[in-house]
Amino acid sequence: MSDSATTYSGDVTLTGSLDAPIEIRDPDDVFIQMEGVDGDLIASNPENVFTHLSLGDAPSAIDAETTVRGDLEDGYVRNGGVAGDLIVTDAEDVFVPVHAARTVSTDGAENTYSAAEIDVPTDTRVYDSTTTGWRQSDAIEDPETGVYVTGAHHTVEIDRTSTDIDVYVVGYGHEVTVTGRDADINVVILGYENTVRVGQRLSVDDRTTTGFDNEIIDDPYPVEDLIETTKDEAFDAAGFGRSKVTYQVPATDEQWCQNCGEAADAIIERHQLDAWFLFGRPVRVYGKSMNPAMECEHCSMNTVATELSETERKNLLR
Prior knowledge:
Blueprint: E1 4-14, E2 22-25, E3 29-32, E4 40-44, E5 48-51, E6 66-77, E7 86-89, E8 93-96, E9 103-107, E10 111-114, E11 129-134, E12 137-141, E13 146-152, E14 155-161, E15 165-172, E16 175-180, E17 184-192, E18 195-198, E19 203-212, E20 215-218, H1 231-238, E21 241-250, E22 267-278, E23 281-288, E24 293-296, H2 310-316
Parallel strand pairs: 1-6, 2-6, 2-7, 3-6, 3-8, 4-7, 4-9, 5-8, 5-10, 11-13, 12-14, 13-15, 14-16, 15-17, 16-18, 17-19, 18-20
Antiparallel strand pairs: 21-22, 22-23, 22-24
């Protein structure tokens, strides 16, 4: 088999125009997209391999039809980028997501980080946002399926999330922020030093991290969203004379809701007080709650109306 050498400088992207099998020699990092390699992928002498494919047996020798070499920086393999086998030789890091090749095997890797049976959409066309490369950014609203990130140092903001989505992050140094309400987020990370932050009114349905120094930050539900009337508001409204007031306070020492039995981020107590008030201060108490009722973000009526303003929610529940 003849070997056609192609010399490059800087980043190189395989898009399907070169004859396979293809060998990439001595790149910095190589990022394979889902459905990037039609055949087998062999990583020879890399420092690190990060993969969501099951590792195969030790590779047999494959003669390259095309060799990509030169003063290479990073290599990217797009969807359908290699119509056959791919050999990556002497790379620093190789990132192989789910459904990226028929098989993946390593020869001489210093470190391998792998996991299989990853549950994310494997068709890149279904994602609301797909970013590839170095220092990319994107911002989307009202996502329907999720985002897929490949490369290094991307910044992606996902706002107004109201349906369950997938966040698939491949590479390193990425920062993804998801905000919205009433939706479950499936977070899958492959690589290192990536951060995914999920907003207060969302929940992380499942989380998978493969690599090292990755972080999924699940912001707790804001307890103030469950409070209809604070203690100060109730006392101020009591004015002068005898009055029965109801107010809510955070149950800061509780981790489980006594009302529904769920583990919760935000738990409140509902208090009642029968007292004589003078200028908004109780001067004589006739009765008060001894065992206040509790509720949390899972069982509170206020949870269903988090899209309303504070004033609207209070008026709705009066």
